[in-house]
Amino acid sequence: MTGLRKRYRGKTVTNNAVEGLDLEIADGALVTLLGPSGCGKTTTLRLIAGLERPDAGEITIDSRTMCAPARGVFVTPDRRPIGIVFQSYAIWPHMTVLQNVVFPLRVTRPHPSRRECRTRALASLELVGLADLAERPAPLLSGGQQQRVALARALIREPKVLLLDEPLSNLDAGLRDRMRDEIRALQQRLGITTVFVTHDQDEAMAISDEVVVMDSGHIVERGLPQEIYTWPRSQFTAQFLGVANEFEGTVARVSDTTVDVDLKYGRLQCHRSQSLSLGENVRVFVRPESFRLSRKYSEGAWEATVDFSIYHGDSWDYYVKVAEAPIRVRVYREKVGLSTGDTIFLTPDDAAIVIRADRSDDDPDTVDDHLRSEPVDATE
Ligand SMILES: Nc1ncnc2c1ncn2[C@@H]1O[C@H](COP(=O)(O)OP(=O)(O)O)[C@@H](O)[C@H]1O
Ligand SMILES: [Mg+2]
Fold first, then answer.
1. Angle, nearest 10°, between helix axes 173-190 and 143-155?
2. For ligand 1, is residue 41 a contact (CB within 6 Å)?
3. What is the CATH number that goes with domain 2-230?
């Protein structure tokens, strides 16, 4: 899709739900749209499915144009090669499992025979491990089973693209992980191109070939899950991923692979993941697990005082203060035996994330201003 834009026009306000999305998805890949509630994930899926008409931009699936308002092209949802699972599942309670799954075939032209409908629905249910429940009334299903029915229904037309809108958000924690892995396994087995939507970063990291981070209708950045997690390139992503410790600093030295940043507490050598220039103001994010912690001072260590600690089963979080600034440190090994008021020394490793403080190329505000000055497309 290119330049995709959708604004919801209310009586008094216009809601910019999606603002100029450019996204190409490789055949057979699972791409996740990750972002906070209201950032435009569902709108994007609905645009791909044809349930919304964009104000501008184009969507192409397999080099077939699905919509292009500037050229008056719009393919209706029933003619698009897509299957969608809604966040709510949208299972019809007055139908059996089989009737629910068959439903999309009713709008398929030419209409398949009754027998073919049944065969295909059973095959689809087989894929999600529910063939045994075909005749069961839909209301008698558990949450996990409803989810599978919705998935079977989305797959029955053998779509080119599968769209999944927060499919796991209504499930209990344990089941959620299992269904996530099952969806991934099925997706890879069928080799079906999939757009998965979630606001849950762990889910996004676990399931995706690629993660697309969204904020306020824009793509903030995209990359492999491990890239996005390890070296987020924007403040938004770092904060959204919950990298707890954030500092302001100035670039003091740049080499090919590293950058030295002067923080209030001293100089820190960091991995360089983007171009930075000397004297530039930056933000430095340090994950809680990226500190070494010792009772003895060593060169470059930051002196800290322990506030309190929290035990997580596999780790301890120490909340400490360095010159009045709160810092969270995570330790996985046996408890160092620290108590409130103890003095310790922190050494951040070189996994600190350095982000330009005023990046203009992916700063949503800047893009917004640019788009605001554009005339609103009058194709609607
Ligand atoms: N039918 C609608 N009418 C008006 N505004 C809408 C409608 N659907 C969504 N929005 C608004 O568009 C923005 C994006 O919504 P949505 O795509 O649902 O986000 P997400 O799925 O990421 O939570 C939000 O500000 C939301 O309030
Ligand atoms: Mg949504």
1. 20
2. yes
3. 3.40.50.300
